[in-house]
Amino acid sequence: MARSEAVNFMRETPLFSRLSERELQALLRTSREKTFEAGSKIVREGETGGLGFYLILDGQVEVRKGNRSLAKLGAGEFFGEMALLQEDAPRSADVVALEETRCVMLTRWDLRGLIGAHPDIALKMLAALARRLSDTNKALSE
Ligand code: CMP
């Protein structure tokens, strides 16, 4: 995706909607875009080190714990925040591409810098975490 296209996409993403054009440009300069083939494991449960935060540009992923599906996430949604927010925590689940999936990957430092400048990002992430926890609790009681 061209950088201007990625900037437009991220501006439409609730998490980053308050960032200025300049901030988005700067963010995209330090981030990496990567395409994952269907079936590839993007994040492996238990892994530590080289941690990144992923925003899905297009495609779909599944969060899995063993054979259990915890969630499916698509364009505009994110994953990989849990290990970044806790100090040195291992990845809590596998994340597998269900189809060809393109992501923007941010480092822990980029994400922390962003949250420092835009605390609303932390609030939005908390809201998403609460939603996911509540969905998982619901699924467990079914
Ligand atoms: P992290 O632990 O870094 O790596 C695995 C990711 O899967 C995790 O961050 C979350 O982004 C996501 N994840 C883990 N558990 C759930 C869940 N119960 N529902 C939705 N997403 C989850």
Would you write up a description of this structure?
By secondary structure, this protein is α+β, with helices and mostly antiparallel strands. The chain is about 40% helix and about 30% strand. It contains 5 helices and 8 strands. The protein has helices spanning about 5-10, 20-30, 80-85, 110-115, 120-140, and strands at about 30-35, 40-45, 50-60, 60-65, 70-75, 80, 95, 100-105. It has a 4-stranded antiparallel β-sheet with strand order 1-8-3-6. Strands 2-7-4-5 form a 4-stranded antiparallel β-sheet. A hairpin with a 2-residue loop joins strand 4 and strand 5. Helix 1 crosses helix 2 and helix 4 crosses helix 5 (about 120-140). The termini are far apart. The relative contact order is 0.20. The mean pLDDT is about 90. It binds adenosine-3',5'-cyclic-monophosphate.
Topology of this protein?
Elements: H1 3-12, H2 21-30, E1 32-36, E2 41-43, E3 52-58, E4 60-65, E5 68-74, E6 78-79, H3 81-85, E7 94-97, E8 101-107, H4 108-117, H5 119-140
Antiparallel strand pairs: 1-8, 2-7, 3-6, 3-8, 4-5, 4-7
The structure holds adenosine-3',5'-cyclic-monophosphate.
Adenosine-3',5'-cyclic-monophosphate (CMP) binds at residues 43, 63, 70-71, 79-83, 91-93, 95, 132, 136.
- Uncertain stretches: none
Measured by DSSP, the beta-strand proportion falls in 25-35%
Helix content: 40-55%
Rounded to the nearest angstrom, the distance between the terminal CA atoms is 40 Å
What is the residue-mean pLDDT, rounded to a whole number? Answer: 91
**Rg result:** 15 Å
Largest sheet: 4 strands, antiparallel
What ligand species are in this complex? adenosine-3',5'-cyclic-monophosphate
The count of helical stretches stands at 5
Say how many strands there are.
8
Based on helices, strands and strand pairing, what is the structural class? alpha+beta
The main sheet orders its strands as: 1-8-3-6
Please tell me what the overall shape is: globular
H/E series = HHEEEEEEHEEHH
